[in-house]
Design goal:
This protein has 240 residues and is α/β, with parallel strands linked by helices. Helix content is 25%, strand content 24%. A hairpin with a 2-residue loop joins strand 9 and strand 10. Helix 2 runs parallel beside helix 4. The structure holds NADP nicotinamide-adenine-dinucleotide phosphate.
């Protein structure tokens, strides 16, 4: 059974179907998706999965369903144990029916390149992944057989350059699943068009990171929609 999600703003609608939810999110641009506790923690026991409930998991999959590329920082890849990027069978069927590849491209952002080219992320990938890195990174040649290595900065990957490089490849619906360091860099580079934030009904206190981390940056955003499933809120903010 799917987790019921209602829209409460800008207009009310109950128990939205997948197609109704997709209609609002299937567009071009750079979208970032996070889950947080009410008090702003981005992790529970060090991972986002500890915060995420079934409705968030449904929405998370729908965000992937419409993405051309899913961009993730290497820290999150390592901590959350990402494997090859595959959407669900339902999402793959939807994508195929809409003339898209069955799976989005997986783009990993790393400066250190402390990743294993023999890991399932690369060897089991249904679509050749992209490694977004810097001109200073060492050992990029280790990945050439298993990924497209794209340089998008010197000291660190520049979010705007990375988005432009993805656009040049026809990857215009960009979904970034974090983490906070990557989101902070993308904010600094003014590379974020939309934020989808799930607020889960828990208070975490402690030392958990927030969803963005990095240099002081202030960006005003405009509320685009509010969805609700029980006590969970799904807030979507866009560029003003
Ligand atoms: N609540 C949520 O929705 C959510 C989502 C994602 C992650 N998280 C949590 O966030 C924590 C990880 O935080 P994090 O800040 O370490 O995540 P992160 O941003 O994914 O990882 C940081 C690492 O990613 C690479 N990176 C990020 N931005 C870069 C840039 N501009 N240029 C070059 N490399 C870049 C670097 O990798 P190298 O070290 O390889 O150079 C950097 O050390 C985990 O606990 C995870 O569970 C929560």
């Amino acid at each position: 059974m799917t987790e019921g999600i209602d829209r409460i703003w800008p207009d009310g609608a109950e128990r939205l179907t997948d197609d109704e939810l997709l209609a609002a999110i299937d567009h071009e641009g750079v979208r970032v998706n996070f889950v947080a506790s009410i008090d702003g923690a981005a992790t529970h026991d060090g991972r986002s999965g500890g915060l995420s409930g079934p409705a968030d998991q449904r929405y998370f999959e729908l965000l992937r369903r419409v993405a051309d590329v899913v961009v993730v920082g290497a820290g999150t890849v390592r901590v959350e144990g990402y494997t090859a990027m595959r959407v669900s069978d339902a999402s793959a069927a939807w994508r195929e029916a809409h003339g898209r590849d069955r799976h989005p491209v997986f783009a990993i952002v790393s400066r250190s390149l402390e990743l294993d080219p023999a890991s399932a992320i690369f060897t089991d990938a249904p679509v050749r992944p992209i490694l977004l890195t810097t001109s200073r990174a060492r050992g990029a040649s280790r990945f050439e057989a298993v990924a497209d290595v794209v340089v998008a900065g010197d000291e660190r990957v520049d979010g705007a350059r990375a988005a432009a490089a993805l656009r040049e490849r026809g990857l215009t619906r960009v979904l970034c699943e974090g983490g906070p360091t990557l989101f902070g860099a993308m904010l600094a580079d003014d590379a974020v068009d939309e934020l989808c934030l799930t607020v889960e009904p828990s208070l975490e206190s402690g030392a958990a990171v927030r969803i963005a981390h990095g240099a002081d940056v202030s960006r005003a955003m405009r509320l685009a929609s509010v969805l609700r499933s029980g006590s969970t809120l799904f807030l979507r903010y866009a560029r003003p």
